[in-house]
Amino acid sequence: MKIAVVCANGRAGRLIVKEALSRGLDVTAIVRGENITEAPNSLKKDIFDLTGADLRGFDVVVDAFGVWTPEKLPQHSSSLKHLCDLLSHSNTRLLVVGGAGSLYTNKEHTACVADSPDFPTAFKPLAAAMAKALQELRARSDVKWTYISPAGDFQAEGEKSGKYIRGGEELTLNSKGESVISYADYAIAVVDEAIKGHNIGRRISVVRE
């Protein structure tokens, strides 16, 4: 299996590359600068400069794009649209490293994590930008996409337990009542989805077991 990780130099991207290599996948890191991942193959290119030819031949493309400054938040939508346009009507699957703020907190799907009063105000613009990108992605029937939301507490330096629970559109808690996952365990879930491909056209979520 050939997999490309876009924006692979980020914290999530590097761990996804590492996990994919440990499973024997043929991994290409797509990066803007020097490749600091473990991938032996790399392409130095900005996400917005990628072409259809750059992504041709991959079974899976993982979108690990992320920006946080207010002026760049709209790029969550524009970058995802760009990748979708490049992969439109192809057999290449697109896995999106998503956010937790848009996970639903009720069965009616009328309230989200970001709506709760204890959700940090500083993160609301980011959550809104990522939720908008997800809604736009849902409208794409021409792309084999899967959106993967982490747990509410997404720990960059968390330990790798090797175990996780896969949920769906709603915030899922583990047996301890926690919504937490490490980047390392999240990477396992992403690579599992890359290999199995059971959730095309769906948003799934993951939490530490």
TrEMBL record:
<dbReference type="GO" id="GO:0016646">
    <property type="term" value="F:oxidoreductase activity, acting on the CH-NH group of donors, NAD or NADP as acceptor"/>
</dbReference>
<dbReference type="InterPro" id="IPR036291">
    <property type="entry name" value="NAD(P)-bd_dom_sf"/>
</dbReference>
<protein>
    <submittedName>
        <fullName>NADH-flavin reductase</fullName>
    </submittedName>
</protein>
<dbReference type="Pfam" id="PF13460">
    <property type="entry name" value="NAD_binding_10"/>
</dbReference>
<feature type="domain" description="NAD(P)-binding">
    <location>
        <begin position="8"/>
        <end position="192"/>
    </location>
</feature>
<dbReference type="InterPro" id="IPR051606">
    <property type="entry name" value="Polyketide_Oxido-like"/>
</dbReference>
<dbReference type="InterPro" id="IPR016040">
    <property type="entry name" value="NAD(P)-bd_dom"/>
</dbReference>
